[in-house]
Protein: Hydroxyneurosporene methyltransferase
Amino acid sequence: MIAVPEPVFWAAAAYIAASGLLLAGLAVLAAPALVITRRRSRYFEDWNEALHAPWFFWHVGGFLFRIQELLGNYVLPAPQRVCDLAHSHFRAQVLFTINELGVPDLLRKHGPMSGAALAAATGAHREYLERVLRAASRMGLVTMAHGAERSSSEQQQQEQQQQQQQQHEEEGKGQREAKAGKKGKQQQQRVEEEEEGRREPEQAAAAARQQQARRRRGPLDLEGAVFGLTQLSAVLCEDHPNCVAAMVSLFSDHCGPASELLEGVRSGRTPYELWSGGRSHWDHMAAEPELLARFNRAMTQFNSLSPVEAVFTACPALVDGSAPRIVDVGGGLGAFVGAALARQRRARGALFDMPRVAAAAKKAWRADPGKRELMARVTFHGGSFFDAGAVPRAEADGEIYVLREILHDWSDADSIRILREVRAAIGARARCRLLIVEAVLASAMRSTASARVNGDIHMLVQYGDAKERTEAQFCGLLEASGFEMRRVVPTKGLFLVVEAVPV
Structure:
């Protein structure tokens, strides 16, 4: 009997079990997935439509995704898996590169394009760009085929070249015939026939060589490759309803600070401050308006990661008119409160953020026809939620205060300060509620588990003591600030909603 090493045995067992689960799950999910895909109209319909899928599919799909994510740890040899993880940052750089070059928008506009055409359109180095695109194809960011498709601009260019060549040949032939007499014409005809006879074998041999070269060409050969859009790169297009291009650009800005993680862990200092020469992320943005503008654009696109519909479904009071006012604390340009007010006619809204951001939000609302009609029900407030009395005061019982992805930017001590200012703003209005929308660190088997713990490292790099938190940690912050946690509501998205009431 052959002795099988225990790690190999368990790896094989895990692989077989996971494969069975994946096949079963795919069988269950295939029908609705196909329906959703057919309705996507080349990847440009709103992904929030998927929020209407039953919870069962979310749970099963999330579990299977997590199993697939963990499978590599048990199937691949450990050295190979570790080296694969070490290469992860190169994958991110491929994504950042095609995003910054605007490749998805070009593919959206022109259809599949060759590397040469994309290099000409972006001003990039052709060979380097093609190699990046090849890597992107293995990540599902672009399709890669060999001569199967060409963009309309390339087709037009080739047709024009063929027409010009044919016209040039006809003109040359006409000139030769005009110069030669009748006898010369017959002689010229014989010469052309002889040349044609010699060309035919040469053309046949060249065609045979090309066909043989095509047979030898592998799927990763760059010669003759054309690249197209996928559902992943589609969300990097400006006109996609769930565009996250600005979010990806923001993440690329943080690669430099991330390189200081090791020194930060050793010294206990914030990696961002080590990278920036001592400035905090907030001070850096305050000093450079372009950084702040990039940050605000990214936060506007944040709804693609935390869809407002998912939060509204989890907390219907935000849109059913039962709350007299919704106060969005740290609400940026007001995408969330605007979406809430657009779904009802009675509730009012208050948007609170730093003075510069609040002023930009008011200007943006005036320029937006859809939001301009809501401005009669919204007030804009500028200030810092660390300043006493700056948060808008509650005007009636039943109002809802929202902290959406705010506390994870701050340490425990600063988070308690923010929560206490919100509590002071609520005052004696005992029926008011606080909703905290955050990436709560919960079940390790949820499909978003990796994204949440990675987000915690992101907070560590940017702000040091800032963090993603567990349910118990949120409970502790609330109790220290004059609130009581009522419940934690899951959503069909990356984040959960922590609901609290004043005590």
